[in-house]
Amino acid sequence: MKKMVMMAAAAAFVMGAGMAPAAHAGGYNVKKCKACHAVGKDKVGPAWKDVAAAYGSADALAKVFKDGFKVEDRKVIAANGKWKGKAGMMTGQYKKLIKGHEDEAAKALFDAVAAGKI
Ligand code: HEC
Predict the structure, then answer these.
(1) pTM value?
(2) Where does 1-118 have alpha helices with state H?
(3) Would you call 112 exposed, middle or buried from its count of C-beta atoms within 10 A (0-12, 13-18, 19+)?
(4) How many domains does the chain have?
């Protein structure tokens, strides 16, 4: 299942790159997330491949960001309660780096997973 989600994310990335309208040109600075996240392993925060698997699509993640990224809406915490104690840390990052850029941030996360690195 996880593998299928990953493949779908990868396929979406390749298709997106192929069509490449200029809308996202310039890009979102996802490097700031790197302090705490990696694609394939947990660091301070959860591995982004697990985040992508939990949300399924960039649109689904963007929606949770736009709805205020409430702790009870966070799917990684719902899947694994060990992250709950660190929710406040991610809330601070959300306010600083994601709010106002919800679509770009969600897309950047899925693109990083498809590329295998942040
Ligand atoms: C200071 C460390 C830190 C930085 C920087 C950081 N994160 Fe996180 N992130 C965390 C921690 C800790 C968690 C686990 C708590 C949680 O899930 O809310 C997390 C969880 C997440 C989740 C899963 C939320 C859930 O539970 O469903 C997403 C999505 C996410 N981060 C995206 C990002 C993005 C995008 C950036 C860069 C804009 C970023 N993070 C930067 C620490 C960080």
Answers:
(1) 0.84
(2) 2-19, 48-55, 58-66, 75-79, 87-93, 102-115
(3) buried
(4) 1
Domain range for 61: 2-115
DSSP 42: -
- pLDDT tens for 33-86 read 999 999 999 999 999 999 999 999 999 999 999 999 999 999 999 999 999 999
Test site for ligand 1: of 30, 34, 37, 67, most ligand atoms within 8 A of the Cβ: 37
**Does residue 28 sit in helix, strand or coil?**
coil
Question: CA-CA distance, 95 to 104, in Å (whole number)?
Answer: 14
